Amino acid sequence: MRLCNACGRGGGAAPSNARAWADAADPDLCDLLRYLREDSAGGELSREIDSLVDEYNSDRKWVSRVMMLEEDIAMRCRRERAEGREEGAGEMAALMARLLKEGRVEEAARAAEDVAFRERMLSKERA
Q1: 33 touches 43 (CB < 8 A)
Q2: Mean pLDDT of all residues in the chain?
Q3: Which of 22, 65, 84, 111 could form a disulfide with 118 if both were Cys (CB 3.0 to 4.6 A apart)?
Q4: Angle between helices 44-57 and 27-38 (to 10 degrees)
Q5: CB 79, CB 110: distance < 8 Å
Q6: Cβ–Cβ contacts within 10 Å for residue 95, how many?
Q7: CB-based burial, 34-59: b 16+ in 10 Å, e otherwise
Q8: HSE, side-chain direction, 13 A CA sphere, residue 81
Q9: pTM for the full model?
């Protein structure tokens, strides 16, 4: 798909609901979904989009900015996921420490294995 391959790095698949392009009642929606699914500019809307894709892809400065933005977003997402894992590990460690200190070994073992139970225990910790 040209929209996903704009930076020449390959891209993801078309949105899964784009497969229903033939069933779309609205002609513009049908045209757009078909374009997304088959990369086929057949209608006025998809030809206009295709023209803009060509225009922007030929602007290497713009493509570079988009690539830098994508890389920045990916880096921020990785950082936030790492921070979330650290926070979750800290909460779990605090829960385990408290349960073990209180001699609640069976609850600690259950919290380590049972996700629903662990979430209930962590919710109590947060409150």
Answers
A1: no
A2: 83
A3: 111
A4: 40
A5: no
A6: 19
A7: bbbbebebebebbeebbeebeeebee
A8: 6
A9: 0.47
Structure tokens at 78: 């990785």
Structure tokens at 109: 């073992």
DSSP state of 50: H
The residue with greater pLDDT, 101 or 13, is 101
- What tokens appear for 101 in the block? 């200190």
CB 7 within 8 A of CB 67: yes
Q: How far apart are CA 106 and CA 29, in angstroms?
A: 57
**What is each CA distance from 52 to 12, 61, 107, in whole angstroms?**
20, 15, 60
Quick one: tokens of 71? 């890389």
Contact 112, 118 (CB under 8 A): yes
